[in-house]
# Entry
Amino acid sequence: MSLFGSMTTAISGLTAQARALGHVSDNVANSQTVGFKRTDTNFVSYLTDSTQSVHRPGSVVARPDYTNTVQGTIEQSENPLALAIAGQGFFSVALPTGTANGQTTFDERQFYTRAGDFQMDRNGYMVNGAGYFLQGWLADSAGEPDRTRIQPIRVSDLVFNPIATANIELSANLPAGGTDPVSTQFNVYDSLGSLRAMTMTWTPSAANTWTLDVSSPDAGGSVGTIDVQFGQAAATPVADGTVGDLVNATGTMTGSTATLGEPATITFTADFGQGPQSITIDVGAFGAARGVTQYAGDEYVVRNIAQDGVPLGSFSSINIRENGDTAINYDNGQSRVIARVPITTFSAPDQLQRLDGQAFMRTLESGEARTADPASNGAGRLAIGSIERSNVDIASEFSKLIVAQRAYTANTRIVTASDEMLQDTINMRR
# Structure
């Protein structure tokens, strides 16, 4: 019985070492696979009988020991869409199954991966090298993510609609005691995104009072005038040289009510062919030395003039921020957040089911999936423009290879010895 038991045990050792060799082989083959997690070998013994006086040979099995929680080296990539997770967690991804009505369809099951070598495909989806589609929380018009649903991220807003100019901020100084008109040219965007030239003309009309005229050849000339009173010329006395009141508006001009410390704004409308467009000029605050002032000087000085509004924009690029926000950049200088990339964690990630393409699925043993913002609730942070390499150490694998080979050879010796001893036992009758 002991001889047969010894041979059986040695054969189980051969099987176990062969499996260990398979793990080593798989690890070495995937040493350059992005996001790959190596498989170590856990040898487990099984006993037939073991007491204080008797121990009979049992067997050994080789079980896989997964290392899903062991971080691989994070390496910078020239791909701006590449992502790596520094810490715990996985990307949520979807597996395409085909198309229907021209749209990509996906497997209803949820998949996870650490392989973040994403690139945008021809349909605007972000796909990694194994063919899995990155998923995230889609954003609303304000850029806030909808955390109630996760779905594949797709870049579809390839055009940024133009925004008409609605506000102008002017900072300038009119020369106190000036007698000649001065002017400033500026541009605004209409509702179609076209630039329209306009002119502000300041004409001294009384002591410490200047008449502002706004005109545009594209709007039929002057859109109106308004008197801007400074300091003691105002109805309510304020500091000399600061805006005190806005009076005598004509045309489409209107001025805000004079209240000390409140914004001083002038509003007018201009029709560039698409209907009236309301524009507000911020000239500072009543009684405050900012915006438009009237102090001593030889000439009219414009310190700053800025306006909002943007022209039509076309898709330029896409970038992912450290908080996971995925933003489209346009050639008009604008950007729009379309989604946020979350990170999913598990209580026992080593118990996830492994799939093709460095992907995983949840199991009962792994626990529930917990999806959160990067760098929150135990989730790792995002490394932008980087990938996570395989966590395989070639030197360590070669050491395991040598040990497995020697152990396999040793088990063959036991089989041979057991065979010879059995043969000797059979030959005892001769």
Q: What stands out?
A: The helical segments are 2-29, 394-426. The radius of gyration is 38 Å. The first strand starts at residue 39 and ends at 46.
